[in-house]
Write a structure and sequence with these properties.
Radius of gyration: 22 Å
Shape: globular
CATH class of the largest domain: Alpha Beta
Structural class: alpha+beta
Number of domains: 3
Number of helices: 16
CATH superfamily of the largest domain: FAD/NAD(P)-binding domain
CATH topology of the largest domain: FAD/NAD(P)-binding domain
Strand content: 15-25%
Strand order of the largest sheet: 10-2-1-14-21-20
Largest sheet: 6 strands, mixed
CATH architecture of the largest domain: 3-Layer(bba) Sandwich
Length: 433
């Protein structure tokens, strides 16, 4: 009898989720599945946050090029829950960090560790000394449990590696995973990412590249699923106030038993300042790294692989370019990504876009571009992710009884990724009870 009463109490709990990014979607879906009465507030006109699609002059573009990997188990599970088949919307391929010259690290399908070792040994762009040095470092990291001193940077972690390995593998991998340059990035978080991606198991390192607009990958199906299961989705509503009541919490004057703050750290700090000032101060203290995505069109062009690693330099800002045609999406459309883009945003988006366009022309062999690449749109997110620096203290999930936070910035082992956001949303919902 007591168990039935507790189950009924959980079913009848009114939960407000503030923020409809991937963390908020995860929180709302898990709360709905648990039987709670959910209201999801989102200030934009659609769900998805920093990973959604936008209209751009008649075209449907994502508000940033995103990569998922096979280790994103919670994200893939969430997609299936709301009726999305990952195989239909994501192109899966073994990890390939390959440059315009075709040289690079190519993993084959199979157990993770042997696949990585074999890929390093096959890398013809490096000498035997360079390949052996990378394998020695990887073995040492594994023997140490992929742990590093909290104050250590990625640059210091890899200082003894050959320069070419650092330039061609460590630096682009670090900035892609942590959106923080290696001299500033946390070695501890970097190693955790390597452990769970490259060495976690078969398929964990596979690239999952969206071949459908991001809104169709999760946000739009999630909205339909939530509404079909009785949850309210309130778009275009920026929450103004959060206050404690005798029974729970009031969100803009509406009573709820529990609240999940799944908005940005900046917004969460604003709302929590009066009820959890210490938490709010910590959430407001983040430094951020921007990401710039440059969309270009080149009719008739097809690159050798869907994702190509680019040589970076003082006048070459992008680390990767994606061929949407090779992904089964829009032929002749390309997305070049500039991660850790603080210095380039200071130079201006027009300068950055032109530098990317010239970088693409210079990086590939003559004749690759069947028509000159033309910049279609430049999208910059100046607060794309927190700067993942050594010793960074991130705010906790629980602020107060039945008040939790969800976002890729809350305390956890991962950098700011979609998987980190989804896991945070699930954890926040669990913590409410």
């Amino acid at each position: 009898m007591a168990g039935d009463v507790h189950a009924l109490a959980r079913t009848l709990m009114r939960v407000a989720v503030v923020g409809g990014g991937w963390a908020g979607i995860a929180a709302a879906v898990h709360a709905t599945r648990a039987g709670h009465a959910v209201t999801l507030f989102e200030m934009a006109a659609q769900l998805g946050g920093r990973a959604r699609s936008v209209d751009a002059g008649g075209a449907r573009l994502d508000n940033g090029q995103h990569i998922l990997i096979g280790a994103y188990v919670e994200t893939l599970a969430l997609m299936r829950t709301v009726g999305v088949d990952p195989q239909e919307v994501l192109a899966r391929q073994p990890l390939a960090l390959v440059g315009p010259d075709g040289q690079g690290l190519r993993l084959r399908r199979g157990p993770a560790v042997p696949a990585f070792v074999a890929a390093v040994l096959r890398h013809r762009g490096w000498s035997w000394r360079e390949r052996a040095a990378l394998l020695r470092h990887a073995a040492a990291w594994a023997l140490a449990g992929f742990e590093a001193d909290a104050a250590c940077t990625v640059e210091r972690l890899c200082a003894a590696m050959p320069q070419r390995v650092r330039d061609e593998l460590v630096a682009p991998l670090c900035v892609a995973a942590l959106n923080t340059p290696a001299p500033e990035a946390s070695a501890q978080v970097f190693l955790r990412v390597l452990r769970d991606a490259l060495f976690a198991g078969r398929g964990a390192a596979d690239l999952l590249l969206p071949r459908a607009p991001l809104s169709e990958v999760l946000p739009a199906p999630a909205r339909a699923w939530l509404q079909a299961h009785g949850s309210r989705v309130r778009l275009g509503h920026r929450v103004q106030t959060l206050t404690a009541t005798t029974a729970g919490w009031a969100v803009d004057g509406e009573d709820f038993d529990a609240v999940v703050l799944a908005c940005t750290a900046h917004e969460a700090a604003r709302l929590a300042r009066a009820v959890a000032p210490a938490w709010a101060a910590q959430a407001a203290a983040f430094e951020y790294q921007p990401i710039v995505t440059v969309y270009l069109d080149s009719a008739g062009t097809r690159l050798p692989q869907p994702m190509t690693a680019l040589p970076e330099g003082p006048d070459a800002p992008a680390q990767y370019v994606f061929d949407h045609g090779a992904l089964g999406a829009c032929a002749g459309r390309f997305a070049a990504v500039v991660s850790g883009a603080r210095a380039w945003t200071q130079r201006g988006l027009e300068v950055t876009a032109e530098a990317v366009r010239q970088q693409l022309l210079d990086a590939f062999a003559p004749g690759t571009w069947r028509s000159p690449p033309l910049v279609r749109r430049v999208l910059a997110d100046k607060r794309a992710t927190f700067a993942c620096t050594p010793g960074l203290q991130r705010p906790a999930t629980v602020l107060a009884p039945r008040l939790c936070a969800a976002g890729d910035y809350v305390a956890g082992p991962y950098p700011a990724t979609l998987e980190g956001a989804v896991r945070a949303g699930k954890a926040a919902t669990a913590a409410l009870t």
